[in-house]
Amino acid sequence: MEDRKSWDIKDEAILDDLLTLIGLTAEEKKALSNLQEAARAIAPTLSEAFYHRLLAHPNTAEYISGQIDERKKTLEQWFIQLFQGNYDQAYVKQRLKIGETHVRIGLPIRYPLAMIDVILDFGAQLIVQSQQPELAVKAFRKLLAVDIAIFNQAYEDTQFKHMAETFGNESLARRVLTQ
Ligand code: HEM
Predict the structure, then answer these.
(1) Model pTM?
(2) Could you report the per-residue pLDDT of 56-89, keeping only the tens digit for each?
(3) Which residues surround ligand 1 with Cβ inside 6 Å?
(4) DSSP per-residue letters across 38-90
(5) Strand, helix or coil at 17?
(6) Nearest-angstrom CA–CA distance, 141 and 54
(7) C-alpha angle with apex 57: 112 to 104, nearest 5 degrees?
(8) What is the spatial distance between Cα 79 and Cα 131, in angstroms, rounded to a whole number?
(9) Whose CA is nearest to atom 39 of ligand 1?
(10) Cα dihedral angle (119, 120, 123, 125), rounded to 10 degrees?
């Protein structure tokens, strides 16, 4: 198998790659930014529901005990920023860093992915407040998909970094996984 073009896309370049794939339009960005104030208003209820669920499960609770207030604050910021309307290199850099933080604490990726359920629930509560709900729902789904992809990218990057050390380079490491 030849090397794939996607294998060379790194760091902030993944934003253009994903936006090209997903095609977030100017109207969709506007529909999201029109909801930012509503997102700010709903964010504390979202973080309450989010951490209530994580605390109810011992396997997730052990990561967050003793830091709930701080965690709620950063999650609320994360949610509000989903609706900022401009998604540039600084945005993706910061979102990658958030993913890396979770890699660093040894958190299995299944937990952040499963918690998207709560984000979807609150996203739906915002969509019904939009003047253009059909546009807003499309936009929200697209941007959340991009964010989940970036979060995952941080996990994959770390794995390939270590595998590249073992196998000599990333291309060889990727080939090992295709066998
Ligand atoms: C949709 C999923 C999630 C989102 C959007 C999210 C968001 C964030 C953000 C924005 C930060 C601050 C990162 C930084 O300052 O670099 C953070 C930190 C953290 N998150 Fe999450 N999180 C998610 C899932 C989880 C889950 C499932 C857990 C644990 C079960 C968790 C535990 C933590 C911990 C312990 C920190 C602090 C890490 C440290 O700085 O040592 N997160 N999260």
Answers:
(1) 0.95
(2) 999 999 999 999 999 999 999 999 999 999 999 9
(3) 54, 60, 63-64, 71, 74-75, 78, 97-98, 101-102, 105, 107, 111-112, 115-116, 119
(4) HHHHHHHHHHHHHHHHHHHSHHHHHHHTT-HHHHHHHHHHHHHHTTSS---HH
(5) helix
(6) 23
(7) 40
(8) 20
(9) 101
(10) -110
